[in-house]
Amino acid sequence: MTVTSVIMAGGKGERFWPKSRTNLPKQFLNIAGNKSMIQQTVARLEKLMDIKQIFIVTNESYAELIGAQIPKLPTNNIIIEPIGRNTAPCVGLASLIVEERYPDSTMIVLPSDHIIKDESEFINILETAVHVAQQQENIVTLGVSPTGPETGYGYIERTDEMWDSFNTPVYKVNQFVEKPNLEIAQKYIEEGNFYWNSGIFIWKSKTIRKRIQQFMPDMDVLLKDIQPALGTPWESDTIKQKFLEMPDQSIDYGIMEKADHIYVVPCQLGWDDVGSWTALDRIDDRDDNGNVIRGNILNIDTKNCIIESNDGKLIATLGIEDLIVVDTEDVTLICTKDKAQEVKKLLKELRTQKREQYL
């Protein structure tokens, strides 16, 4: 059975503002290493499959960026979403196109902007997940073993029921839970059977189509309206027309929280979703005072800060602690670390003030 992959790359990475911008969002930036995050994602998957079996879902604004950063990707493997409608419509549209091109394939669905340090283990885990997904109508997800009570991630609770016998354990999922507060996150850690939701899913294309029909019937009708247009001159117009009617809903809420036969593969991959600036505390080296320093920085009596300068500009700090300071060509962000998840509020205010040039 053919294995394909679908990379979701339409996000704006707003919590990584001001470095992540509307015209160059986070997935196209070199956050860690000398390649962009989407280039790293594609390179990992190429260890498992041919580039022709990799599809990228994005919006029209980023199609040219994808072509420039991944020139060997076939142009018709770039799936254009006419409008952002969350991950369920994204997955639904991709499943149609993948099934048309590779009938009965097993799909790996994953975000474009995650860091995975242990890539060989990642491939091993995916091979296990693909095997389980190919049996019956199973859905498989990767659960990251938590290193602390993180409140920025959703969680997956497993049961004690295992799938056959693998060198890599595979457990049946009990439930998916939303991002918790700190007290509940601590409880999850203590219980030991909760994992961070990686947002990586593996299923047969036919399996996810059946789940959409079962749990999201209105969206299924729209997808069936699109299907006859695939490969015809009116494909693009049909997708545009029907996508406007799609629900704005995540695949987690629309399918994963309701479906059965879901399994989780626990993993420790050096994984991070780089959701906000505080991710640099986890993925970068820190100095003796706990600071993450990028660029031309002079700091005295500065502790536990994240500081990044732009184009050689000097940032000098004195007597500060637990701050994020990010300088770009036209914007400088200064905020406390505990507000890192709330950077979107600044973008909302910029829109209110009609200062879109800074977005």
UniProtKB/TrEMBL annotation:
Pfam families: ManC_GMP_beta-helix, NTP_transferase
Keyword Nucleotide-binding: yes
GTP-binding among keywords: yes
Single Gene Ontology BP annotation: GDP-mannose biosynthetic process
Record-annotated MannoseP isomerase/GMP-like beta-helix domain positions: 295-350
GO molecular function ontology, one term from the record: GTP binding
EC number: 2.7.7.13
Record's catalysed reaction(s): alpha-D-mannose 1-phosphate + GTP + H(+) = GDP-alpha-D-mannose + diphosphate
Keywords of this entry: GTP-binding, Nucleotide-binding, Nucleotidyltransferase, Transferase
InterPro entries the UniProt entry points to: GMPP_N, ManC/GMP-like_b-helix, Mannose-6P_isomerase_type2, NTP_transferase_dom, Nucleotide-diphossugar_trans
Every Nucleotidyl transferase domain range: 5-282
Similarity remark: Belongs to the mannose-6-phosphate isomerase type 2 family.
Name of the featured protein: mannose-1-phosphate guanylyltransferase
The species this protein was found in: Cohnella ginsengisoli
